[in-house]
Write a structure and sequence with these properties.
The protein is of the alpha+beta class and 423 residues long. The chain has 4 domains: 2-92, Rossmann fold (3-Layer(aba) Sandwich), CATH 3.40.50.20; 121-186, ATP-grasp fold, A domain (Dna Ligase, domain 1, 2-Layer Sandwich); 190-314, D-amino Acid Aminotransferase, Chain A, domain 1, CATH 3.30.470; 328-404, Glycinamide Ribonucleotide Synthetase, Chain A, domain 4 (Alpha-Beta Complex). It has helices spanning 10-19, 52-61, 72-76, 79-85, 95-102, 104-114, 127-132, 160-171, 240-260, 293-297, 305-314, 352-356, 393-404; strands at residues 2-7, 27-32, 42-43, 66-69, 90-91, 121-124, 141-145, 154-157, 183-186, 193-200, 205-207, 212-213, 216-218, 222-225, 230-233, 267-276, 279-286, 328-335, 361-365, 368-370, 376-378, 382-390.
């Protein structure tokens, strides 16, 4: 089987590294890929991730059997639609179904229709109306941009002035561009968060192992939100029974409601949840594998990922099962100096071989590129994910940090409390 994976981040490297282990796979393409994907796949730098026609034509020319679309932007832009229109197998929802991530207001509408438990919310396009409604929602206040904002469109604050500033920044200052033309004020949900992914062909919904990510840049969940600074799996507070409840009350009703609207969902549905005292409540949906949770979930998968994604794309997921390594996983993200603000690129990354040689370690490149001399250099804000498997979370955590210390580039920083026990 020939498989192409669209994207250039740590999620895509994790997907390709896992697919490379399948006896069903004989050739892999990364479009466009990074320095890490080049080790397991053929990088294809000439086609843009949202160039639907170009991607589909590449798949046809290279006789690609299945294309997996990694990031949300091409899915929301309708890349999967182009593949389906040409009769090309693709893992990823159509634009109509990807609205579950592309518009938070749409997701709330779907959840209301499907009876999915979530936070109370209201959407606004008028800044004065949104500011007037703040007293109905906080403190603390949750202000969300409706559209895609690269993981940085959510403000959670106990300060009324900061909440007002977030409203004005989106609706007046246009800091999120089109993504912030509509905002949501949302009820704050108390409790730990969990990420539960599910592979679906539009009928069968098959959950994967749960994970928890750390979004804020600083230890103790301080500082601004990022795309994710680390993750761990499994979760001590999410057992198999709770995953089954989430499948039954959240994932299946959402897929069914989208189907009723003519948007059959094939691909990966990601539920970001808060575990409240009243039960799990949906914070958000994503229409693709999460990053960095993918980097900690896939190394624990012992069943064949290629078989799983092929079955989802072909509509034959019924009867499929997923098996897991009982060991725990921890991923620590190494970020560029200044991230999530401005940062330099082009810095040489050293120590990769030494870190990769440690037992139980997987290195997933995110923001990297090869220079003409074959050296790995930084090319993004989140540069590398260091994933470790261990006998338990404490063991995996120790292994991850020991390996992370061996990787060096100018200004590198990472959180020191990923998967740490609660204080």
């Amino acid at each position: 089987m020939r498989i192409a994976v669209v994207g250039s981040g740590g999620r895509e490297h994790a997907l390709l590294a896992t697919l490379a282990q399948s006896p069903e796979v004989d050739r892999l393409f990364a479009v466009p890929g990074n320095a890490g994907t080049a080790e397991v796949a053929e990088n294809v730098p000439g086609v843009g991730a949202t160039d639907a026609a170009g991607l589909a034509s590449f798949a046809e020319a290279k006789r690609v059997d299945l294309t997996i679309i990694g990031p949300e932007q091409p899915l929301v832009a309708g890349v999967a639609d182009e593949f389906l229109d040409r009769g090309l197998p693709v893992f990823g929802p159509t634009a109509a179904a990807a609205r579950i991530e592309g518009s938070k207001a749409f997701a709330k509408e779907v959840m209301a229709a499907a009876g999915v438990p979530t936070a109370r919310s209201e959407s606004f396009t008028d800044p004065a109306a949104a500011i007037a409604a703040l007293d109905d929602f906080g403190p603390p206040w949750v202000v969300k941009a409706d559209g895609l904002a690269a993981g940085k469109g959510v403000t959670v604050t106990g300060d009324h002035a900061a909440a007002r500033a977030a409203v004005e920044a989106a609706l007046v200052g246009k800091v999120h561009g089109e993504a912030g033309q509509t905002i949501l004020l949302e009820e704050f949900l108390e409790g730990p968060e969990a990420s539960v992914f599910a592979v679906t062909d539009g009928r069968t919904v098959l959950p994967l192992a749960p994970a928890r990510d750390h979004k804020r840049v600083g230890d103790g969940d301080t500082g601004p939100n990022t795309g994710g600074m680390g993750a761990f799996s499994p979760l001590p507070d999410v057992d198999d029974d709770l995953v089954e409840e989430i499948r039954r009350t959240v994932l299946e009703p959402t897929v069914a409601e989208l189907g009723r609207r003519g948007a059959r969902y094939q691909g990966l549905l990601y539920a970001g949840l808060t575990l409240t005292p009243a039960g799990p409540r949906v914070l958000e949906f994503n229409c693709r594998f999460g990053d960095p949770e993918t980097q900690v979930i896939l190394p624990r998968m012992t069943s064949d990922l290629a078989d799983l994604v092929w079955a989802a794309a072909e509509g034959t997921l019924s009867g499929c099962k997923v098996s897991w390594d009982p060991r725990a996983g921890v991923t620590v993200v190494l970020a560029a100096g200044g991230y999530p603000g401005s940062y330099r690129t082009g810095l040489e990354v050293e120590g990769l071989q030494a870190a990769a040689a440690r037992p139980g370690i997987h290195l997933f490149h995110a923001g990297t590129a090869l220079d003409p001399d074959g050296r790995v250099r930084t090319a993004g804000g989140r540069v590398l994910g260091v994933t470790a498997l261990g006998d338990d979370l404490a063991d995996a955590r120790a292994r991850a940090y020991q390996a992370a210390e061996l990787v060096q580039f100018g200004g590198a920083h990472y959180r020191r409390d990923i998967a740490a026990p609660p204080p």
